[in-house]
């Protein structure tokens, strides 16, 4: 047999320790690069996921805000001049899907949160209040009060310490004095004499509660006296929206009790009074004309309080076209009632005490004559009403996971049905106005049902 030819075994080249180390280092760098790339991609995905979650939360908060606006409009429909209470239209932690909304209301004591729809007629109207009435507002100055009068009147005459175009045209950013009514409360920023301290006082975030940064002296803005009490500016007490309606909510012209023409008043009385009462009451009305105001009409017409209650919403002492703004004595705070001419501190206290008693009938101005002496009631009735048609709501909406919130202020005209939205202002830039624990709790996964009871019990 022939021998098979054997091939020589090939020897692989030997790799030195230096070459092996180089390979190891290159491999480690590749692994590190891959790990870094994974980490970068993971972080990018995390950021993208967080951004998507934030975007979804912002969309949810915006939808809740719109739902809250519709909630307010629905509760203001068909009121016919009456004012919704907190029981009628709750404003605290209203559940909307997974999120919730609040309707902030100015607090009476500045220490506890208050909720509900705000009556604009419970404020002093900047377009109709005399300078002497404006001067009684907290922190108001003579310069600003006179300047408001000059800003809204139609002439160019300077009122005492006020200002007309001669002043405004000399500013670095000059403009003319408007010489027309204010259209928003924020228009005050254009008027000589206004300052943040006068406008907001210590309540710069407008939540009606003394926050920590509003009670620390000069440590942080705003400047405050650190006395543990919220010094409020004029923001909560002034408006440009309250006005005596030209007609009732049913669009029927108010009946002028001083008008000797027509039979509208006699027809109205026949619907309310018994047949034997109509003639003597009409006779007394004819002999007593003219009436100064509705309280004067009530006193001298011979109507009982129950009879007056039934017609008070349909009558007036003028044609019903007067646009002068009246203060709603049922809802105005102490600071606003103190601005009404001839009302002294004891009178204001008497009105507040009377209206706070449970079971009081406050539907007509007749109750003022029970709380005050007759002469005093007659003197102030020209400035008071018990009906309101313009309302505002400070809405806070938060997503269910606490990632986003929105805040806005709206003004609603409820003269007609459905009510109309007159004004919308975004207040989100002012920051979260409620206890921070709510946001922290939502972000940590706690359900709202567990957060709100603690808040209501004062745990915060």
Characterization of the model:
The structure is a single chain. The chain is of the alpha/beta class. The protein has three domains: 56-118 and 391-456, no CATH class; 124-239, Orthogonal Bundle (Ribonucleotide Reductase Protein R1, domain 1); 255-385, no CATH class. It is 36% helix and 11% strand. It has helices spanning 17-75, 131-134, 142-152, 165-168, 196-200, 264-272, 275-288, 294-301, 305-311, 334-337, 345-356, 366-371, 374-380, 436-443, 448-456, and strands spanning 94-96, 99-105, 114-115, 118-119, 124-125, 238-239, 255-256, 315-316, 327-328, 384-385, 390-398, 405-413, 420-426. Strands 1, 2, 3, 4, 11, 12 and 13 form a seven-stranded antiparallel sheet that branches. It has a two-stranded parallel ribbon with strand order 5-6. Helix 14 packs antiparallel against helix 15 (448-456). It is elongated, with a radius of gyration of 34 Å. Residues 246-251 and 454-460 have low confidence and may be disordered.
